[in-house]
Amino acid sequence: MVNPSRKLLRFILSFYSENFTGNPLAHMIQTQLSPHMVLPDFFIQALLSTPRQKFIPPLYRGHYTADRNFPLEQHANKRFLLTPLTLTRLLFPLFSFKDQSKKILLLAGGSGYSAALIHQLGFTIFFVENQDSLLTLAQQNLAAFDNISFYKKEDLKEGLPEEGPFDCILVDGGALCEIPPLYVQQLSKEGFILALLKGSSLSQDKVPLCQGIKQNIQGDKEILFDAFAPVNLDLSLSPTFSLDA
Hints:
Layout: H1 4-18, H2 24-33, H3 41-49, E1 70-71, E2 80-81, H4 84-91, E3 103-107, H5 113-119, E4 124-129, H6 132-141, E5 148-152, E6 166-171, H7 181-184, E7 187-198, E8 209-216, E9 221-228
Parallel strand pairs: 3-4, 3-6, 4-5, 6-7
Antiparallel strand pairs: 1-2, 7-8, 8-9
Helix pairs in contact: 1-2
């Protein structure tokens, strides 16, 4: 027997996808996400109730549902809001959590969009940024949410050992060249890391082919998907390295 609330949610999504000028988010779900995966209703609701445009710089808000990676800083291009499909695929393993008491470490959280989605799944979030402007923006965007703690860390490769262990460490904002070793040490026994790994360390492409990976405490990696994504420079360069050097 179909759950009435589930049936209603599917009807609403179907209705708005056919009349997408009234709800671009529903159209985004129907055209960019649904052809690739079956989304649970609670995540569909989270996507529909989160104003994605609020987390994107004003310059791009007219295209906030577009299938593209949006830079979150005007000049640095160090942090990005990932495409709807890439981000959803990266978050997908979190949907298997049955216990809402799980602790999530969100690194390079940017303007807070991923945190807004994860929060609606009921988890406790430890939000870490090294960019003052982005940390302030995220705090403003997420002011109405509880169970989110904010931290400023100069070196994101350190993680947040003082608050671990974590059930999941999610690296947002772009791809990495490798998983920092300190992350594994901050996982709970059944915990895992979710991140995008750059496919080739030699590639100079601005948006290289990457792999979404899930890594456990033993260091075993599971490849979840392939995607083109920009590199998160704050997690791919040494803290002492300068692009101007």
